[in-house]
Design goal:
The complex is a heterodimer of chains A (114) and B (113). Chain A has 114 residues and is mostly beta strands. Chain A contains no helices and 11 strands. In chain B, 0% of the residues lie in helices and 52% in strands. The chains are: A mainly beta (114), B mainly beta (113).
Protein backbone atom coordinates (compact mmCIF):
# COMPACT_ATOMS: atom_id res chain seq x y z
CA UNK A 1 0.00 0.00 0.00
CA UNK A 2 1.47 3.31 -1.08
CA UNK A 3 2.15 5.75 1.66
CA UNK A 4 2.98 9.35 2.30
CA UNK A 5 3.54 10.00 5.98
CA UNK A 6 3.60 13.38 7.66
CA UNK A 7 5.29 13.39 11.02
CA UNK A 8 2.60 15.27 12.94
CA UNK A 9 -1.17 15.57 12.61
CA UNK A 10 -1.40 18.60 14.89
CA UNK A 11 1.19 21.18 15.91
CA UNK A 12 0.97 24.30 18.04
CA UNK A 13 3.90 26.70 17.82
CA UNK A 14 4.66 30.16 19.06
CA UNK A 15 5.21 33.20 16.88
CA UNK A 16 8.86 33.48 15.88
CA UNK A 17 9.68 29.81 16.35
CA UNK A 18 11.44 27.82 13.65
CA UNK A 19 9.12 25.01 12.59
CA UNK A 20 9.93 21.83 10.70
CA UNK A 21 7.25 19.78 8.96
CA UNK A 22 8.47 16.40 7.80
CA UNK A 23 7.18 14.19 5.02
CA UNK A 24 8.31 10.71 4.00
CA UNK A 25 7.14 8.61 1.04
CA UNK A 26 7.83 4.95 0.42
CA UNK A 27 7.03 4.80 -3.29
CA UNK A 28 10.40 5.87 -4.74
CA UNK A 29 8.71 8.90 -6.30
CA UNK A 30 10.84 11.63 -7.84
CA UNK A 31 8.37 14.46 -7.27
CA UNK A 32 7.42 15.78 -3.87
CA UNK A 33 5.20 18.74 -3.06
CA UNK A 34 4.11 20.90 -0.17
CA UNK A 35 0.66 22.47 -0.34
CA UNK A 36 -1.16 24.73 2.02
CA UNK A 37 -4.95 24.35 2.40
CA UNK A 38 -7.15 27.19 3.63
CA UNK A 39 -10.96 27.43 3.60
CA UNK A 40 -12.23 29.06 0.42
CA UNK A 41 -8.78 29.08 -1.15
CA UNK A 42 -8.31 25.40 -1.92
CA UNK A 43 -4.78 24.03 -2.06
CA UNK A 44 -1.92 26.31 -2.97
CA UNK A 45 1.54 25.06 -3.88
CA UNK A 46 4.34 26.28 -1.63
CA UNK A 47 7.37 24.38 -2.97
CA UNK A 48 8.09 21.26 -4.91
CA UNK A 49 11.09 19.09 -5.68
CA UNK A 50 11.71 16.76 -8.60
CA UNK A 51 15.02 15.34 -7.39
CA UNK A 52 17.28 15.19 -4.38
CA UNK A 53 18.66 18.64 -3.48
CA UNK A 54 16.49 20.22 -6.18
CA UNK A 55 13.67 22.61 -5.31
CA UNK A 56 11.36 24.93 -7.14
CA UNK A 57 9.15 27.69 -5.79
CA UNK A 58 5.44 27.26 -6.06
CA UNK A 59 2.80 29.96 -5.91
CA UNK A 60 3.27 31.07 -2.28
CA UNK A 61 6.87 30.42 -1.18
CA UNK A 62 7.30 33.53 0.97
CA UNK A 63 8.11 32.70 4.57
CA UNK A 64 8.94 29.07 3.77
CA UNK A 65 11.93 27.02 2.73
CA UNK A 66 12.40 23.33 1.98
CA UNK A 67 15.02 20.63 2.20
CA UNK A 68 15.38 17.39 0.28
CA UNK A 69 18.52 15.54 1.27
CA UNK A 70 17.14 12.09 0.52
CA UNK A 71 14.73 10.97 -2.17
CA UNK A 72 12.09 9.78 0.25
CA UNK A 73 12.07 12.80 2.57
CA UNK A 74 10.90 16.37 1.95
CA UNK A 75 10.89 18.91 4.75
CA UNK A 76 9.05 22.21 4.94
CA UNK A 77 10.63 24.86 7.14
CA UNK A 78 9.00 27.95 8.57
CA UNK A 79 12.02 30.09 9.46
CA UNK A 80 10.06 32.34 11.83
CA UNK A 81 6.48 31.24 12.28
CA UNK A 82 3.75 33.87 12.09
CA UNK A 83 0.05 33.69 12.86
CA UNK A 84 -0.84 33.97 9.18
CA UNK A 85 0.89 30.64 8.64
CA UNK A 86 -1.76 28.90 10.72
CA UNK A 87 -3.14 26.41 8.22
CA UNK A 88 -3.40 22.80 7.09
CA UNK A 89 -0.24 21.62 5.33
CA UNK A 90 -0.37 18.71 2.89
CA UNK A 91 2.56 16.81 1.45
CA UNK A 92 2.26 14.85 -1.79
CA UNK A 93 4.44 12.76 -4.07
CA UNK A 94 4.25 11.50 -7.65
CA UNK A 95 6.29 9.87 -10.35
CA UNK A 96 8.22 12.04 -12.79
CA UNK A 97 6.59 11.10 -16.06
CA UNK A 98 4.09 12.60 -18.47
CA UNK A 99 1.31 10.06 -18.04
CA UNK A 100 -0.42 8.58 -15.04
CA UNK A 101 0.52 11.58 -12.97
CA UNK A 102 -1.50 10.72 -9.90
CA UNK A 103 -0.28 12.43 -6.75
CA UNK A 104 -0.51 10.68 -3.40
CA UNK A 105 -1.19 12.79 -0.34
CA UNK A 106 -0.33 12.54 3.31
CA UNK A 107 -2.92 12.99 6.06
CA UNK A 108 -1.99 16.60 6.59
CA UNK A 109 -0.52 18.60 9.45
CA UNK A 110 -2.75 21.19 11.07
CA UNK A 111 -0.42 23.92 12.31
CA UNK A 112 -1.57 26.58 14.73
CA UNK A 113 0.75 29.51 15.40
CA UNK A 114 -0.10 31.43 18.55
CA UNK B 1 -0.83 29.76 -16.64
CA UNK B 2 -3.30 27.06 -15.79
CA UNK B 3 -6.23 27.67 -13.51
CA UNK B 4 -9.29 25.83 -12.23
CA UNK B 5 -12.66 27.29 -11.26
CA UNK B 6 -15.14 25.56 -9.01
CA UNK B 7 -18.04 27.98 -8.80
CA UNK B 8 -19.99 26.14 -6.12
CA UNK B 9 -18.42 26.32 -2.68
CA UNK B 10 -21.15 24.13 -1.15
CA UNK B 11 -23.76 21.82 -2.64
CA UNK B 12 -26.49 20.47 -0.35
CA UNK B 13 -28.40 17.45 -1.63
CA UNK B 14 -30.70 14.77 -0.28
CA UNK B 15 -29.65 11.15 -0.16
CA UNK B 16 -30.37 9.21 -3.39
CA UNK B 17 -30.66 12.42 -5.42
CA UNK B 18 -28.37 13.10 -8.38
CA UNK B 19 -25.59 15.63 -8.08
CA UNK B 20 -23.26 17.56 -10.37
CA UNK B 21 -20.17 19.39 -9.16
CA UNK B 22 -18.90 21.86 -11.70
CA UNK B 23 -15.31 22.40 -12.76
CA UNK B 24 -13.93 24.63 -15.50
CA UNK B 25 -10.27 24.92 -16.36
CA UNK B 26 -8.10 27.32 -18.27
CA UNK B 27 -5.05 26.16 -20.17
CA UNK B 28 -3.39 26.85 -23.48
CA UNK B 29 -1.99 23.34 -23.80
CA UNK B 30 -3.15 19.77 -23.40
CA UNK B 31 -3.97 18.93 -19.84
CA UNK B 32 -4.57 16.12 -17.48
CA UNK B 33 -7.58 16.58 -15.23
CA UNK B 34 -8.33 15.11 -11.85
CA UNK B 35 -10.96 14.98 -9.17
CA UNK B 36 -9.78 14.44 -5.62
CA UNK B 37 -11.96 13.85 -2.55
CA UNK B 38 -11.17 14.81 1.01
CA UNK B 39 -13.13 13.20 3.83
CA UNK B 40 -13.16 15.00 7.21
CA UNK B 41 -9.77 15.11 8.91
CA UNK B 42 -8.06 13.23 6.10
CA UNK B 43 -5.75 13.92 3.22
CA UNK B 44 -6.82 13.95 -0.42
CA UNK B 45 -7.60 10.77 -2.33
CA UNK B 46 -7.79 10.46 -6.10
CA UNK B 47 -11.38 9.94 -7.26
CA UNK B 48 -10.84 9.83 -11.01
CA UNK B 49 -8.63 11.22 -13.72
CA UNK B 50 -8.68 12.08 -17.40
CA UNK B 51 -5.39 11.58 -19.22
CA UNK B 52 -6.45 10.78 -22.80
CA UNK B 53 -8.86 8.61 -24.76
CA UNK B 54 -12.51 8.35 -23.80
CA UNK B 55 -13.87 11.64 -22.54
CA UNK B 56 -16.07 9.92 -19.96
CA UNK B 57 -14.19 8.56 -16.97
CA UNK B 58 -15.62 6.64 -14.07
CA UNK B 59 -14.63 5.89 -10.52
CA UNK B 60 -15.22 2.70 -8.59
CA UNK B 61 -17.80 4.29 -6.28
CA UNK B 62 -20.26 5.50 -8.92
CA UNK B 63 -18.92 8.94 -9.76
CA UNK B 64 -18.20 9.93 -13.34
CA UNK B 65 -16.78 12.97 -15.06
CA UNK B 66 -16.84 14.07 -18.66
CA UNK B 67 -14.03 15.97 -20.31
CA UNK B 68 -15.42 18.63 -22.62
CA UNK B 69 -12.64 20.37 -24.50
CA UNK B 70 -14.84 22.91 -26.26
CA UNK B 71 -16.36 24.06 -22.97
CA UNK B 72 -13.13 23.54 -21.01
CA UNK B 73 -15.10 21.66 -18.38
CA UNK B 74 -14.70 18.49 -16.34
CA UNK B 75 -17.89 18.25 -14.29
CA UNK B 76 -18.32 15.48 -11.73
CA UNK B 77 -21.63 13.63 -11.53
CA UNK B 78 -23.26 10.90 -9.54
CA UNK B 79 -26.79 9.66 -10.29
CA UNK B 80 -27.60 8.78 -6.66
CA UNK B 81 -25.60 10.01 -3.69
CA UNK B 82 -25.13 8.41 -0.29
CA UNK B 83 -24.59 9.95 3.12
CA UNK B 84 -21.03 8.64 2.95
CA UNK B 85 -20.33 10.87 -0.07
CA UNK B 86 -20.33 13.89 2.22
CA UNK B 87 -16.86 15.34 1.70
CA UNK B 88 -14.99 18.12 -0.03
CA UNK B 89 -14.23 17.62 -3.71
CA UNK B 90 -11.35 19.27 -5.52
CA UNK B 91 -10.87 19.55 -9.25
CA UNK B 92 -7.27 19.86 -10.44
CA UNK B 93 -5.29 20.31 -13.63
CA UNK B 94 -1.78 19.02 -14.10
CA UNK B 95 1.26 20.85 -15.35
CA UNK B 96 2.81 18.42 -17.81
CA UNK B 97 6.43 19.27 -17.04
CA UNK B 98 6.60 18.50 -13.34
CA UNK B 99 3.09 17.22 -12.76
CA UNK B 100 2.33 20.14 -10.51
CA UNK B 101 -1.33 20.08 -9.65
CA UNK B 102 -3.27 23.33 -9.75
CA UNK B 103 -6.39 23.00 -7.64
CA UNK B 104 -9.75 24.68 -7.59
CA UNK B 105 -11.10 26.11 -4.36
CA UNK B 106 -13.14 23.00 -3.64
CA UNK B 107 -16.82 22.12 -3.37
CA UNK B 108 -18.26 20.81 -0.14
CA UNK B 109 -20.92 18.18 -0.84
CA UNK B 110 -23.41 17.87 2.01
CA UNK B 111 -25.70 14.85 1.76
CA UNK B 112 -28.61 14.75 4.16
CA UNK B 113 -31.18 11.99 4.82
Amino acid sequence: DVKVTQSSRYLVKRTGEKVFLECVQDMDHENMFWYRQDPGLGLRLIYFSYDVKMKEKGDIPEGYSVSREKKERFSLILESASTNQTSMYLCASSLLQTANTEAFFGQGTRLTVV
Amino acid sequence: AQSVTQLDSQVPVFEEAPVELRCNYSSSVSVYLFWYVQYPNQGLQLLLKYLSGSTLVESINGFEAEFNKSQTSFHLRKPSVHISDTAEYFCAVSDLRFQKLVFGTGTRLLVSP
